[in-house]
């Protein structure tokens, strides 16, 4: 099954092949969680949203017509699931400052003697990543989702338009505004940090 394309797996899964469905889920499980985590902002909510999204994919796979790539359709299901949950709650998301940022590989690489960043550089890089994640979390959902899909998941503008069910021009506009808003949030945060330190 590993040698089959997504399209072949989808076709088999739509015909009732449970192994093909399992392989599809296995291929996209981590990416589903990563996207949900960035949209929801914490591990517990991301796990719930990712699980719900994958259940929706299993239940609605027969509706997938193949007009786009399976991954694009999956991203749409995940973003809609997260948006539904955020709307249902009617509150802003909460993020634990004590919770570690998960990696795509699922764990921190082993430490070894080499020429890579030392502990200080490693900590600084992770501090910057956490600050950017917090700043992204402060964006309105419409802006947050386009930044995440474009800059973190490397989807094309057209794929994002398909995922979100909107036009290419709208995506470009939202992304431009989102990046401006993100820049302002980061600059304000840095200015506030310098005021406190000084």
Automatic annotation (TrEMBL):
<dbReference type="GO" id="GO:0016987">
    <property type="term" value="F:sigma factor activity"/>
</dbReference>
<dbReference type="InterPro" id="IPR013324">
    <property type="entry name" value="RNA_pol_sigma_r3/r4-like"/>
</dbReference>
<feature type="domain" description="RNA polymerase sigma factor 70 region 4 type 2">
    <location>
        <begin position="131"/>
        <end position="182"/>
    </location>
</feature>
<dbReference type="InterPro" id="IPR007627">
    <property type="entry name" value="RNA_pol_sigma70_r2"/>
</dbReference>
<dbReference type="InterPro" id="IPR013249">
    <property type="entry name" value="RNA_pol_sigma70_r4_t2"/>
</dbReference>
<dbReference type="Pfam" id="PF08281">
    <property type="entry name" value="Sigma70_r4_2"/>
</dbReference>
<keyword id="KW-0805">Transcription regulation</keyword>
<dbReference type="InterPro" id="IPR039425">
    <property type="entry name" value="RNA_pol_sigma-70-like"/>
</dbReference>
<keyword id="KW-0804">Transcription</keyword>
<dbReference type="InterPro" id="IPR013325">
    <property type="entry name" value="RNA_pol_sigma_r2"/>
</dbReference>
<protein>
    <submittedName>
        <fullName>RNA polymerase ECF-type sigma factor</fullName>
    </submittedName>
</protein>
<dbReference type="GO" id="GO:0003677">
    <property type="term" value="F:DNA binding"/>
</dbReference>
<feature type="domain" description="RNA polymerase sigma-70 region 2">
    <location>
        <begin position="24"/>
        <end position="92"/>
    </location>
</feature>
<dbReference type="Pfam" id="PF04542">
    <property type="entry name" value="Sigma70_r2"/>
</dbReference>
<comment type="similarity">
    <text>Belongs to the sigma-70 factor family. ECF subfamily.</text>
</comment>
<keyword id="KW-0238">DNA-binding</keyword>
<dbReference type="GO" id="GO:0006352">
    <property type="term" value="P:DNA-templated transcription initiation"/>
</dbReference>
<dbReference type="InterPro" id="IPR036388">
    <property type="entry name" value="WH-like_DNA-bd_sf"/>
</dbReference>
<keyword id="KW-0731">Sigma factor</keyword>
<dbReference type="InterPro" id="IPR014284">
    <property type="entry name" value="RNA_pol_sigma-70_dom"/>
</dbReference>
């Amino acid at each position: 099954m590993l040698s089959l394309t997504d399209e072949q797996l989808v076709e088999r899964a739509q015909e009732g092949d449970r192994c093909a469905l399992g392989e599809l889920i296995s291929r996209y499980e981590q990416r589903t969680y990563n996207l949900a985590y960035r949209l929801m902002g914490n591990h517990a909510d991301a796990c719930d949203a990712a699980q719900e999204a994958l259940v929706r994919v299993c239940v609605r796979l027969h509706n997938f017509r193949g007009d786009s790539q399976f991954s694009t359709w999956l991203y749409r299901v995940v973003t809609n699931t997260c948006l539904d949950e955020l709307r249902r709650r009617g509150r802003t998301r909460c993020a634990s400052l004590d919770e570690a940022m998960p990696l795509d590989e699922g764990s921190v690489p082993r430490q070894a003697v080499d020429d890579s960043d030392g502990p200080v550089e490693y900590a600084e890089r992770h501090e910057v990543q956490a600050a950017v994640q917090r700043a992204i979390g402060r964006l309105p959902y419409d802006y947050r989702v386009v930044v995440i899909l474009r800059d973190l998941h490397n989807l094309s503008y057209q794929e994002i338009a398909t995922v979100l069910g909107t036009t290419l021009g709208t995506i470009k506009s939202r992304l431009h505004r989102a990046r401006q808003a993100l820049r302002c949030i980061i600059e304000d945060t840095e200015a506030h940090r310098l005021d406190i330190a000084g």
